[in-house]
Design a protein that fits this description.
By secondary structure, this protein is of the alpha+beta class. The chain has a single domain, classed as Fe-S cluster assembly (FSCA) (GMP Synthetase, Chain A, domain 3, 2-Layer Sandwich), CATH 3.30.300. The protein is built from three helices and five strands. The longest helix has 13 residues. The protein is globular. This is Metal-sulfur cluster assembly factor. InterPro entries: Fe-S_Maturation_MIP18 (IPR052339), FSCA_dom_sf (IPR034904), MIP18-like (IPR002744). It comes from Companilactobacillus keshanensis.
Length: about 100
């Protein structure tokens, strides 16, 4: 198991508002693997994101379904604040930016 495998799995989680995956949106700040535990540091576009709980839940479930990982810890942070500059070029083009 490595960070790239986790990132690939997370790229299948789509933000319902923006219709872009959470990796390309830049919501994933860090992936830390330690034995069978994965800690994901992530954020949401806004504190009032109506899909925040759902995205966090899907993130945890997706990672815990990967071979070799039995526990996923989500560290939801607000610093640094998410900005559109965190989005990949692909995401910005998809949104017409």
């Amino acid at each position: 198991m490595n960070n790239q495998t986790v990132k690939q799995a997370l790229s299948k989680i789509i933000d319902p508002d923006m219709k872009i995956d959470i990796v390309n949106l830049g919501l994933i700040y860090d992936i830390n693997l330690n034995d069978d535990t994965c800690t994901i540091t992530m954020t949401m576009p806004t504190r009032s994101c109506q899909y925040g709980e759902s995205i966090v839940s899907k993130t945890k479930k997706t990672v815990e379904n990967l071979d070799g990982i039995t526990n996923c810890i989500i560290d939801l942070v607000w610093d640094p604040i998410w900005t559109k500059e965190r989005m990949s070029k692909l995401a910005r083009l998809s949104l017409g930016m």
